[in-house]
Amino acid sequence: MTEPASAETASVRNPSARLIDGKAFAANLTQTIAHEVRAFHDRHQVTPGLAVVLVGNDPASEVYVRNKALQTHRAGMRSFMHMLPETTSQAELLALIGRLNHDPEIHGILVQLPLPAGLDPVAITNAIHPDKDVDGLGEVNAGRLALGQPGIVPCTPLGCLMLLKSELGDLRGLHAVIIGASNLVGRPMARLLLAEGCTVTVAHIDTRDTAALARQGDILVVATGCHGLVRGDWIKPGAAVIDVGITRISLPSGKTRLVGDVAFDEAVTRAGRITPVPGGVGPMTIACLLNNTLAAARRIVGGAG
Ligand SMILES: Nc1nc2c(c(=O)[nH]1)N[C@@H](CN(C=O)c1ccc(C(=O)N[C@@H](CCC(=O)O)C(=O)O)cc1)CN2
Asked: What's any GO biological process attached to this entry (predicted)?
C-alpha cells in the first residue's frame, strides 16, 4: 500500500508557488489611506505633508523619490521634494532637516538612502525629529522597536509583515529565517517577527552555511542586495519566501531587467508562496511610507481621526 503523501512531499511536487501580489496589496492600502486622509482633513482641516530629501543623482533613487511624490499626491497628501546637489555638505543637510523639523505643514521627513560618500547617514537620520521620522530609522524609533514599544516602524519590513500576515494569518510558532542584517530591513524585520511570536534566525555576512539555516525557515526573508543568492534548494518546501532585493541587470540583448536576491525560477517550484520582483515588496515600501505619514500626522495633530 502506498503511504499518503506528507504535507512536505506534496509541496515538493507543487510545481508552482502562489505569487504574493504586493502591487495589488499596496494599491488597496493606498486607496484606504486616501480615504482616511480625507476623513482626517474633514476633521482637523489639516492635510498630511511629507518631505522627501534626495542628495545627488543616483538614478534608482531618483525613480524611488519620484514614485514617492506621485503616490503621496494620489493619497491626497502634500509632497515637498528637496533635490540637493551631490556637493551638499553635512551642515547644509542638517540645517534643512532642522527647518523641516519645525515646519508645521510637514508631518513626515525622509532622507533617501544611500547618501553620497562624505555624508554620515546615522547622524542625518538621527537629526530627524522622532515624531516625523516616517522611515523609522532614527535611534529613538529603532530603540522603541527593539524594546517592543510603540513607535514608527521602517517601511520595507512593515510591508513584508503585512504581506506575511495576510497570507499566513497567525505567525506564532513559525521559524522565520532572515538573510541580511541591515538596519533598513534585516534587523527591524527580526524584531517585528519576534513580536509576532516567531522563532527568528538572522543570517549575515559572517554566517556559516546560510543555506542550511535557510532550509529551516517556514518564512524566509531575503534582503542582501546580492541578486540570485538564494537557490531553489535553499528553500524549505512550502515556505513563504519574501524577496526584498531589487537589482537591475543587463541582458545579452542590451535590455535591462529587475531581479531579486532569490533565484525565482528555481524557488517557485519549492516555495508555498513567494513575492515576485518587481511587483512584490517594492510597492509595499511606498504604501507603508504613506501609512506612516498619516499616522505621524495623527499623532502630531493630536487627534485619533
Ligand atoms: N530612506 C530610505 N531609503 C531607501 C529605502 C527606504 O525605505 N528609505 N528603501 C530602498 C528604496 N526604496 C525606497 O526608498 C524603494 C525601492 C523599490 C521600490 C519599488 O516600488 N520597486 C518596484 C520597481 C521599481 C522600478 O521599476 O525600479 C518593484 O519592486 O516592483 C520602492 C521603493 C533604498 N533606499
From this structure: tetrahydrofolate interconversion
**What is the number of other CB atoms lying within 10 angstroms of the CB of residue 273?**
19
Domain 154-283 sits in which CATH superfamily?
NAD(P)-binding Rossmann-like Domain (3.40.50.720)
User: pTM value?
Assistant: 0.94
Q: Which residues of the chain have pLDDT under 70?
A: 1-15, 303-305
Residues 6 or more apart from 288 whose CB is under 8 A from it?
Answer: 29, 153, 155, 156, 158, 159, 162
Q: Is 246 annotated as a binding residue?
A: yes
Cα(285) to ligand 1 centroid in Å equals 6
Q: Range(s) for CATH 3.40.50.720 in the chain? A: 154-283
C-alpha span between 196 and 69 (Å, rounded): 32
Task: Give the three cell numbers for residue 113.
Answer: 538612502
What pairing do the DSSP bridges indicate for beta strands 256-259 and 219-222?
unpaired
225 lines ligand 1 (CB under 6 A): no
Find cell 501609512 and name the residue. Answer: 291
- pLDDT value at residue 139: 98
State in Å: Cα 192 to ligand 1 middle: 20
Q: Is the beta carbon of 88 within 6 A of some atom in ligand 1? A: no
Q: What is the pLDDT of residues 233-283, one digit of tens each?
A: 999 999 999 999 999 999 999 999 999 999 999 999 999 999 999 999 999
**What residue ranges of the chain are covered by domains with CATH 3.40.50.10860?**
45-129
Residue 260: name the closest of 288, 287, 303, 222 by CA.
222
> How many whole angstroms separate alpha carbon 194 and alpha carbon 147?
11
CATH code for 45-129? 3.40.50.10860
Closest CA to 163 of 258, 294, 288, 293: 288
Distance 246 CA to ligand 1 centre (A): 8
Per-residue burial over 153-173, b = 16 or more CB atoms within 10 Å of its CB, e = otherwise: bbbbbbbbbbbbeebeeebee
